[in-house]
Amino acid sequence: MNLAVLRGNKPLRNLAILALATVVAVVAATIAVVTMERGVRVKFAPEPFFPGLETKLDQVGKITYTLGRGLRGVEKITLDRGADGRWTVAERQNYPAKQDLVQKALIGISELTLYEPRTARAEWHRNLGLLAPEDLGSGTRVQLLDKAGKPMASFIAGKVPDQTGDARGQGMIYVRRDGDNQTWLARGRFPLFQAAQDWLDATFLDLKRDEIKSVTLWAGTDHPVVMDRASADENDFTLENIPKGRVTRGAPVVNGTATSLVDLTFDDAVPVGSLEFPDTSPQVLVETFDGLRLTLTLTGGGGALWAKIAADAEPAGGDAMKTEAAKKKADMLNDRLTKWAYKLPQQAGNQLTQSVDLLTHEAGPER
């Protein structure tokens, strides 16, 4: 714009001066805000989310996770510490929890460190995954309570930002204290499983391959499937009672079926009385070289295969010590397993219901 025009036009000159002052003010305000935010970030030092909690973990008697299920309301996962110090899952009728997993939760929560403050505006909680579960939010309420039921720590856990791990294996997660709108980016790692069965101790048979002498599917029926071997030195199981004119589908197929219970875990567990096991239920009989016998009785329910398990022992070739050891192991397994029915993984269920026809095929023409 021509300066001479501005000098001669007072209203226009005043307007230009006002515009320039406005630009200067905006720039100054922007610089001030940025400087203030940087100052806050620089001044904030990471601090424990729950100071001193790490010294009180032996006082924790209960851990609860409250999860939002949308219009279905909320769902709770409750981990209880028994008088013997062992943790159980209340929603699974106090089935034993995976003890090391619970310890990871306790230690992880106690080590959470507030790394950086985030928004304190409640309307932004949803964006960070910190809206409370009872408000149709995706946040998970985590509470530690002492043995008298008094809260020791209570907070909402939200989203885990992408690519936030560090060299120590720690990650980042958004959190806020229960009842407080202030949100934080915290450093730490602890399990946030969303289903009760994820906390169960899923190792239950502890059966090893070299222990198995024979496996019989459809035991007690007119068409059992018997797979056995003479000693643990034999790698392959032999399929007995093959129908005339048929041959096995090969050692890998037979061995895969015979060893389907090796290192088996389960998907879920319920009290055995909550399912029906008719007299016609299929049975699987497993015999080991040391005289242990396991009987799995199978039933279907909810589109899955469930098993109840009983153990006993038989004389081990006149070896009294071996037989006694087998009896002790059977008693231990019965004490741990007989009160429960176990949901089997789909692959194991498919293997344990194989028939002779599925494990064999028609023999080719003789040459």
Molecular structure report:
The chain has 367 residues and is α+β, with helices and mostly antiparallel strands. The chain has two domains: 53-199, no CATH class; 209-362, no CATH class. The chain is built from seven helices and 20 strands. The chain has helices at residues 3-8, 10-43, 99-110, 251-258, 320-337, 346-352, 356-359, and strands at 47-48, 60-68, 74-81, 87-89, 95-96, 113-117, 140-146, 151-157, 171-177, 184-188, 212-217, 225-228, 238-239, 246-248, 268-271, 283-288, 292-301, 304-313, 340-343, 360-362. The strands form three sheets. A ten-stranded antiparallel sheet has the order 1-6-10-9-8-7-2-3-4-5, with helices on one face. An eight-stranded antiparallel sheet has the order 13-12-11-16-17-18-19-15. Strands 14-20 form a two-stranded antiparallel ribbon. A hairpin with a 5-residue loop joins strand 4 (87-89) and strand 5 (95-96). The radius of gyration is 32 Å and the shape is elongated. The chain starts with a helix and ends in a 5-residue tail after the last strand.
